[in-house]
Specification:
Blueprint lengths: L1 E6 L5 E12 L5 E10 L1 H23 L3 E6 L4 E4 L1 H7 L3 H4 L13 H13 L9 E7 L5 E13 L2 E10 L1 H19 L5 E3 L5 E4 L1 H7 L3 H4 L14 H6 L1
Antiparallel strand pairs: 1-2, 2-3, 4-5, 4-8, 6-7, 7-8, 9-10
């Protein structure tokens, strides 16, 4: 089989494929060659587009800061990016062909298997774009909070799932610190009020309610001018 590119009289480029079959006489000697040629330009264009698409996919996944891992219908890892290796601590050779359960704590294994079977059985089940929080398991055995969204897709080899994963340890710590701060503000014996840039009250704690007599519903959306007694000099407020 011979593939070659030709240029037409008007300058157009086409790809051709030629197959040559020898013709023999009664004694087995080759007397002629029978050539069959067909135009494979569209096939070549499709192949080039596929290569370009694969190159774009590799460029995006390999440069992504989020971990990206693909599993097949059996739940085995079929693809990953460098961020996945860094996040979980495994090398590419250690990940290849391994079950995704390798990256999940034992207590989540049963739920994962059930979910995978359910999504394999229902093509219409909405799965793409939904973000959930789970725990991941690193190679060293440490667990960490993980945010993951999954997309389902199919090829001539079967059904696959690609997960986009992000370590949310820092976010969880910040949320916990904020929760503790909110609790401290709420329980403070001092009156505390928070306003926006227009001086409208957005939050008051319980001490504010007890001291001023205004309920939260009455205070929120007002300005601190509701506490103005008329006895304080304007200069004091200007300085404040």
């Amino acid at each position: 089989i011979l593939e070659f590119e030709v240029i037409g009289l008007k300058g157009g480029h086409r790809w051709l494929e030629t197959r040559a079959v020898p013709l023999r006489d009664g004694e087995g000697r080759i007397t002629d060659l029978l050539g069959v040629t067909r135009d494979i330009t569209e096939q070549k264009s499709a192949e080039a587009e596929l290569r370009a698409s694969e190159a774009r996919y590799r460029a995006v996944t390999e440069s992504a800061t989020d971990a990206i891992v693909t599993i097949d219908g059996a739940g085995n890892i079929a693809g990953w990016n460098p961020a996945c290796e860094r996040l979980f601590g495994y090398t590419a050779a250690e990940l290849s062909g391994q079950p995704l359960l390798l990256l999940l704590p034992q207590r989540f294994h049963h739920a994962h298997q059930q979910g995978l079977q359910k999504r394999l059985a229902d093509d219409a089940m909405p799965f793409s774009g939904k973000t959930v929080e789970v725990f991941g398991l690193r190679k060293d055995g440490s667990e960490f909070p993980l945010e993951i969204s999954v997309a389902r897709w199919a090829s001539d080899r079967g059904v696959y799932f690609t997960g986009f994963m992000r370590d949310i340890t820092a976010r969880k710590l910040a949320e916990e610190q904020l929760r503790k701060l909110s609790l401290a503000v709420e329980q403070s014996p001092e009156s505390i009020a928070i306003t926006n840039i227009d001086a409208e009250l957005e939050y008051v704690n319980q001490a504010f309610v007890e001291t001023t007599g205004y309920s939260r519903e009455e205070a929120i959306g007002q300005t601190p001018r509701i506490l103005h007694s008329g006895k304080t000099p304007k200069e004091t407020y200007d300085a404040l």
